[in-house]
Amino acid sequence: MTITGTGRISDQRIDKIVPLTTPALLRHELPLDETLVSAVVEGRQAVTRVLDRADDRLLVVVGPCSVHDPAAALDYAARLRDIAGRLADDLLVVMRVYFEKPRSTVGWKGLINDPALDGSGDVNTGLRTARSLLVEVLRMGLHVGCEFLDPITPQYIADTVAWGAIGARTVESQVHRQLASGLSMPIGMKNRSDGNVATAVDAIRAASVPHVFPGIDVSGAPAIMHTRGNTDGHVVLRGGRGGPNYDAAAVADALRLLREAGLPERLVIDASHDNSGKDHRRQPLVVADVADQLAAGQRGIVGVMLESFLVAGRQELDPTRELVYGQSVTDACLSWDQTEGVLTKLADAVRARRARRAVGQTLA
């Protein structure tokens, strides 16, 4: 058989190609004014101070597993803003505003990829919806946290983000380590989904040095990125298939790995995922253990992550029925009432740790 023409060897499995709006155009349509720019810079600096323990508060990244309903997310943000203000002496609260959902096999990929929740894949609308929500959250006075999955989307939203994460499924990826090396905010590296923490430590080291790689610039044009390296990396312990890793022994082991690698000894504990056995009702139990460690003087724990929404649990995406307002369509979350109690418990633990430090009884 004779094959002629590039059409016979290219795009054999592509149904269609849709033009993608440029980051510059989206930023022009949904800009950050000087007040919001200052708020993002201040948020990043505040996170860095907590990571460096120049600020003895606890970083708390809290919010829905993945945003599917912007209206419900803003409702949640209004409640979070109020309690964040009340507990600001002890907690640095960052709202978890995740738009990209990594999948082990198949499933809804998140608001950017599929904003209509129906598989239509209107990415241009998804990007606009996501950036619009982020701008509104910033206007409410909250700091924003996101996980970065697709290496192109940061150009559209990263200027709004105070704290970022690389997930358990991508922490070993060279592409994501390179991406993290050029991102402008502190980045948490999650341990691998099998529980391996050394991979996250390796990711921090890799992202801390300069890299050169292809990407896109703000105009959407292909570009070669020359990064400086990101020195604000830290490990996020989220458990693994072998079990949880939030207890004192697991924390000590993770701190040892960081110490041996010559890296700052700082950990964020994810109370969800495999640390809770993927049971949202166990998140408060994880937090109780972490709070005990904090109260006992553990300074290596600099943050906690929580999956939380208005309504407890999760629901399936079902086109035949109306969704429950404020309930997750991905991982099960704590209810708002439960979240308030958990945040208060963490603030109490920070005050206890502060008191112990005052008398010289803190741990590493």
TrEMBL record:
<keyword id="KW-0808">Transferase</keyword>
<dbReference type="InterPro" id="IPR006218">
    <property type="entry name" value="DAHP1/KDSA"/>
</dbReference>
<dbReference type="GO" id="GO:0003849">
    <property type="term" value="F:3-deoxy-7-phosphoheptulonate synthase activity"/>
</dbReference>
<keyword id="KW-0057">Aromatic amino acid biosynthesis</keyword>
<dbReference type="InterPro" id="IPR006219">
    <property type="entry name" value="DAHP_synth_1"/>
</dbReference>
<comment type="similarity">
    <text>Belongs to the class-I DAHP synthase family.</text>
</comment>
<dbReference type="Pfam" id="PF00793">
    <property type="entry name" value="DAHP_synth_1"/>
</dbReference>
<dbReference type="GO" id="GO:0005737">
    <property type="term" value="C:cytoplasm"/>
</dbReference>
<dbReference type="GO" id="GO:0008652">
    <property type="term" value="P:amino acid biosynthetic process"/>
</dbReference>
<keyword id="KW-0028">Amino-acid biosynthesis</keyword>
<comment type="function">
    <text>Stereospecific condensation of phosphoenolpyruvate (PEP) and D-erythrose-4-phosphate (E4P) giving rise to 3-deoxy-D-arabino-heptulosonate-7-phosphate (DAHP).</text>
</comment>
<dbReference type="GO" id="GO:0009073">
    <property type="term" value="P:aromatic amino acid family biosynthetic process"/>
</dbReference>
<dbReference type="GO" id="GO:0009423">
    <property type="term" value="P:chorismate biosynthetic process"/>
</dbReference>
<protein>
    <recommendedName>
        <fullName>Phospho-2-dehydro-3-deoxyheptonate aldolase</fullName>
        <ecNumber>2.5.1.54</ecNumber>
    </recommendedName>
</protein>
<comment type="pathway">
    <text>Metabolic intermediate biosynthesis; chorismate biosynthesis; chorismate from D-erythrose 4-phosphate and phosphoenolpyruvate: step 1/7.</text>
</comment>
<dbReference type="InterPro" id="IPR013785">
    <property type="entry name" value="Aldolase_TIM"/>
</dbReference>
<feature type="domain" description="DAHP synthetase I/KDSA">
    <location>
        <begin position="50"/>
        <end position="342"/>
    </location>
</feature>
